[in-house]
Write a structure and sequence with these properties.
single chain; about 190 residues; alpha+beta; 6-stranded mixed beta sheet; 4-stranded antiparallel beta sheet; 3 helices; 10 strands; about 30% strand; elongated; disordered N terminus; Ferric-chelate_Red/DefProt; Reelin domain-containing protein; Reeler_sf
């Protein structure tokens, strides 16, 4: 029986151990059509499990460019309709400073995941470095940070370390409310002092 949080690999291994899967893969059959259909159903089931799992342990580095979850054909909701906001601890920073960015749900609507990125608005290059924290996962390839679990959250506190040689910084992000509801294009700006 499949219960709790399990990876696609674990589910597949459990299925393989089950008598149904052994039957599908190893039972000789005289009906070629029936055998092909059973194998096709198994393949579709495993692929569907992988697609439905999303990224419960955080966004992968390949999400850096688009900053969008791969949640099937679901489209992002407009940022201006988001129940979430970013609030930063400072209006300006100096090289080497740390800026705290709060991801908040003022309406109390919980979210499952997020990906926040720091970038220079003049060049669009990612800058600085987020510090890992409880429930957070760094994506150093693109100065980003993501959730590390898919539990409901009402806020997140992110700490960003400013580099020595950058100008203004803008934080942009995507917040996942549910698998099929996510908001893309949220932002906050901090000026270099």
């Amino acid at each position: 029986m499949i219960t709790g949080k399990m990876s696609c690999k674990t589910i597949t291994e459990d299925l393989f151990r089950s008598s149904l899967l052994r039957f599908i893969l190893t039972e000789p059959t005289t009906n070629l059509y029936q055998a092909k259909m059973m194998k096709a159903i198994l393949l579709i089931s495993v692929v569907t499990l992988q697609l439905a799992s999303g990224w419960p342990t955080g966004a992968p580095s390949k999400a850096c460019e688009a900053m969008l979850p791969k949640h099937g054909s679901n489209r992002p909701q407009p940022a201006n309709s988001s129940p979430y906001s970013f609030v930063q601890s400072a209006e300006s920073y100096r090289p080497g400073d740390q800026v705290i960015v709060y991801v908040q749900a003022p309406t109390g609507t919980p979210f499952k995941g997020m990906m926040i990125q720091a970038y220079d608005p003049r060049t669009n290059n990612t800058i600085g470095d987020f510090l890992e924290g409880v429930g957070l996962k760094k994506i150093p390839e693109c100065s980003s940070i993501s959730h590390s679990d898919n539990r409901d959250k009402k806020s997140a506190t992110l700490v960003w370390g400013a580099p020595q040689d950058s100008g203004n910084v803008r934080f942009r992000g995507t917040i996942v409310q549910q698998f099929n509801t996510f908001y893309h294009g949220l932002s906050a700006t901090v000026q270099k002092a």
